[in-house]
Design brief:
The protein has two domains: 181 residues, NAD(P)-binding Rossmann-like Domain (Rossmann fold); 104 residues, Alpha-Beta Complex (UDP-galactose 4-epimerase, domain 1). Helix content is 37%, strand content 17%. It has ten helices and 15 strands. A seven-stranded parallel beta sheet has the order 3-2-1-4-5-6-11, sandwiched between helices. Strands 8-15-14-13 form a four-stranded mixed beta sheet. A two-stranded parallel sheet has the order 7-10. The radius of gyration is 21 Å and the shape is globular.
Length: 362
């Protein structure tokens, strides 16, 4: 009998990679997606199966973390062995503009799923994974950050996720639920949304290389992040729910990289060397070969409260789960730049032919 998994946020970067991983492991996978006037299934279209076929292993349900009756009904119908809660308003900068919605989906949404599991009497059957975040550490209290590092979130997103973290821990202790928090540091891929800084960089670098864009505009170039590949991290999520005992784990590479260095690596893949000059908002990055301005700073992209440094220690996950990352940051950048270069070569061809091109990931 196949295990049954339910994934919220299945149309996102992590949801797509996790669904693919679980299907390869023989799971029956159910995903929850929000209704949208536009198609938002680009990342999972290759997994789609016509519901009229026999033995369908991948099924989608319309739902939303803000609707408890909807979540309860889906969980009752699916009777999942594992639930992976990956859905969220996950953009830190946007959370300052939509703090109430962020709290409703990211904090209360987690509670709604836990309550559904409890009310439906599934506490013995269903294992629960919560996508937590390194943004919990915010104004970091120690370097590197571990499972025992005190939290100090610096955004509405981080605060909402802090509630999610503690309510999972509370339900685990109060109701003996198998519920885990994965404190995942930044993880990227060619499927990353275009508004996140790494994808903004690789997309812009590819377009500049192809002559489709002149300059990219970014915020804090001094910010340092622990960047890994999403493919590695979904494997870690799965391993958490296969453990004998529920617990919370950091997943990270234990290496931090400046945004400025990420830019250097991206352009290096395109045989362009970046030369930096100026300071603060006046800093620019130019093409060393011809002087073209490639990067400018736009203060509009600064956060009201910045998180300057994140670097995680995943020793516990390595020891207890046997998990460790396989991609370096250089491997990650190469994968993303290669994918975006191919994407925009195609787009350039279509645009030159008079066709319209649409972006698909958010």
């Amino acid at each position: 009998m196949s295990k049954v998994a339910l994934i919220t946020g299945v149309t996102g970067q992590d949801g797509a990679y996790l669904a693919e991983l679980l299907l390869k492991k023989g799971y029956e996978v159910h995903g929850i997606k929000r209704r949208s006037s536009l198609f938002n299934t680009g990342r999972i279209d290759h997994l789609y199966q016509d519901p009229h076929e026999s033995n369908v292993k991948f099924k989608l349900h319309f739902g939303d973390l803000t609707d408890s009756s909807n979540l309860t009904r889906i969980i009752q119908e699916v009777q999942p062995d594992e639930i992976y809660n990956l859905a969220a308003q996950s953009h830190v900068k946007v959370s300052f503009e939509t703090p109430e919605y962020t709290a409703n989906s990211d904090a209360m949404g987690t509670l709604r799923i836990l309550e559904a599991i409890r009310i439906l009497g599934l506490t013995e059957k269903t294992r629960f994974y919560q996508a937590s975040t390194s943004e919990l550490y915010g104004k970091v209290q120690e370097v590197p950050q571990t499972e025992k590092t005190p939290f100090y979130p610096r955004s509405p997103y981080g605060v909402a996720k802090l509630y999610g973290f503690w309510i999972v821990k509370n339900y685990r202790e109060a109701y003996n639920m198998f519920a885990c928090n994965g404190i995942l540091f930044n993880h990227e891929s060619p499927l990353r949304g275009e508004t996140f800084v790494t994808r903004k960089i690789t997309r812009a670098a590819a377009k500049i290389k192809l002559g489709m864009q002149d300059t990219m505009y970014l915020g804090n170039l001094d910010a340092k992040r622990d960047w890994g590949h999403a493919k590695d991290y979904v494997e870690g999520m799965w391993r958490m729910l296969q453990a004998e005992k529920a617990d919370d784990y950091v997943l990270a590479t234990n290496r931090t990289t400046e945004v400025r260095e990420f830019i250097n690596l991206a352009f290096k893949e395109l045989n362009i060397e970046v030369e930096w000059s100026g300071k603060g908002v006046d800093e620019i990055g130019t093409n060393k070969a011809n002087g073209q301005v490639l990067v400018r700073v736009d203060p509009e992209y600064f956060r009201p409260t910045e998180v300057d440094l994140l670097i995680g220690d995943a020793s516990k996950a390595k020891k207890e789960l046997g998990w460790e990352p396989t991609f370096t940051v250089e491997d990650l950048v190469k994968d993303m730049v290669k994918a975006d270069l191919e994407l925009f070569k195609r787009d350039k061809y279509l645009l030159e032919g008079g066709h319209q091109v649409y972006d698909t990931y958010e």
